[in-house]
Structure formats: C-alpha cells, structure tokens
Specification:
By secondary structure, the protein is α/β, with parallel strands linked by helices. It has 2 domains: about 70 residues, no CATH class; about 180 residues, Rossmann fold, CATH 3.40.50.450. It contains 10 helices and 9 strands. It has a 9-stranded mixed beta sheet, sandwiched between helices. Helix 1 packs across helix 2, helix 1 crosses helix 3 and helix 7 runs parallel beside helix 8. The radius of gyration is 18 Å and the shape is elongated. The mean pLDDT is about 95.
C-alpha cells in the first residue's frame, strides 16, 4: 500500500484523531488486510463525496507543514488549488454574538483580493463568509467536523454555495465525523496556519478565538484587531491585545498593507 494511502487508512481508523494516527505510524503493524483497507478508503470517500490530500502529497500546502501537529490528511470538496494560490490569505475569527461590532459593516474591512480562511462559525465568521459569497470572492472553510456533518448546521447552505462559487471546504476529520469541542479547538491551528495574517474584529474574554490567535502568533503571523469602546473592556480584549503588540487596523487597505509585508 502506498504511503499516502496508509495515512488515509489510519485517519479513517482513528476518526481523524491526530495523536492516535501518530502513535499508529510508530507501530510496525498498522495496516492488516491491505485490500480491505484500500476498499474502505474508496468506499468512504465515494460515500462522502470527498477527496483526500495527505501530508505526503506534492500539493500539500507548505504553510501547514510549518505548524504544530500538521494534519496528516485533509478531506475536502471544492477548489484545492486555493491552498497554494499566490493570493494572500486572510484568516478570520471572532465573536459568535458580537457586542460592539456591527456585522453589517464588516465587509468594509475585508480586502477584495484576498482568500478568506474561516472556521465557519456563527456571528462574525458567518457575516464575512456571506460577504465572500456576495462578491464571488474565494473562501476556505475549515471545519471541526467531517465535511458532510457541517457545524453549525445552519450554515450548511452557505458552505455549499461558497464551494459552488469556487471556494473550498476541508477538514482533517473523515467526512461523516460529528463535531466535538476538542475538534473545534484542533481546527483553529489549521485556520491560523493557512493564513498570512489573522483578523479578529472582536475577541471576547475567555473566547475560543484565543486558540486561533495563539496559533497565528506561534507561526510569526500578524494578528489584526479593531479598536473597541473602553466601556466594553470587561467583555472584549481587543484593546488589551493591541496594547500588547497586536496590529490595530481601521480599514481594508490597512489589512492589505500588513499582509503585503509577509
């Protein structure tokens, strides 16, 4: 069995769990019946209407090879060439329920010539992905579930429309894997890893956005935030993060200038 097929087999066997896949790679006997394994791979990818890209494939993005625990397999649907496009990529994350940010004006901060990378959550992510769809702007959606078990389910139609519009949806989890809190955390390293910078319009206290922010900082990528009214200091950490060295941005042009330095 080819090495990339081994990775897909182990990914299916361990439901995309990075540590279990890694542990199995160290084993001397991790395949068993090769014909059965190959058959399972074909069946699950066909059933899930998905394709798979492995860490060993030539098209695997260099940006992900540099992150901590690069995913062994990416299951996807859509335009995989976006991963290696020369266009700048802008990762985004933010509040599910914004308290100070007007989601109707977020489009004014998103440059039209970038590929947006999003975890696809409700709130800020949904608003920006909606802008991408309206513009016909490519976007990459990274799920914390299988690509056939979209989370949140309310965004499934939006995700499909973006893929049909030239976008890409992907996950390190096999197509039929359900979401879990642990998977949502793990996907943040992929969101931050794919981008040339991270834009966080609104970061709430004790927010899961911190996982994405930490991933970007560990990769040496700029984190960009909007300033917020001091009256929200007990709810939002934008101003604190800016004071600690994050980039303060006020326009799409400003974001473009920062990305072009990368």
């Amino acid at each position: 069995m080819k090495a990339n097929s081994v990775l897909i087999h182990l990914s299916l066997e361990h439901h995309g769990d990075w540590q279990k896949i890694f542990n199995s790679i160290q084993s001397t006997d991790h395949i068993g019946d090769e014909n059965k394994a190959e058959g399972r791979i074909k069946a699950e990818l066909h059933f899930g209407a998905a394709k798979a890209l492995t860490l060993l494939d030539a098209d695997y993005p260099e940006s992900l090879k540099k992150i901590q625990q690069p995913p062994f397999v990416l299951y996807y649907r859509g335009d995989i060439s976006l991963l290696n496009s020369d266009k700048k990529k802008l990762s985004i994350c933010g509040s599910k329920v914004p308290v100070a940010c007007n989601t109707d004006t977020l489009k004014n901060y998103i440059p039209e010539d970038v590929i947006v990378v999003s975890g696809g959550g409700v709130g800020i992510d949904t608003s920006i992905l909606g802008t991408c769809f309206e513009r016909g702007q490519p976007a990459i959606i990274v799920l914390g579930s299988g690509i056939n078990c979209s989370y949140p389910a309310t965004n499934q139609g939006l995700f499909e429309a973006i893929v049909d519009n030239g976008g890409l949806i992907l996950s390190e989890y096999p197509p039929m894997e359900e979401v879990s809190p642990e998977k949502l955390v793990m996907r943040t390293r992929i969101v931050s890893g794919l981008g040339d910078g991270l834009f966080v319009p609104e970061c709430r206290v004790r927010s899961s956005s911190f996982y994405t922010i930490m991933g970007a900082l560990q990769s040496g990528k700029p984190v960009m935030l909007l300033p917020t009214d001091p009256k929200y200091a007990d709810q939002l950490q934008n101003n604190m993060l800016i004071s600690e060295g994050a980039e303060l941005v006020l326009s799409a042009q400003h974001i473009t200038e920062i990305l072009n330095k990368q």
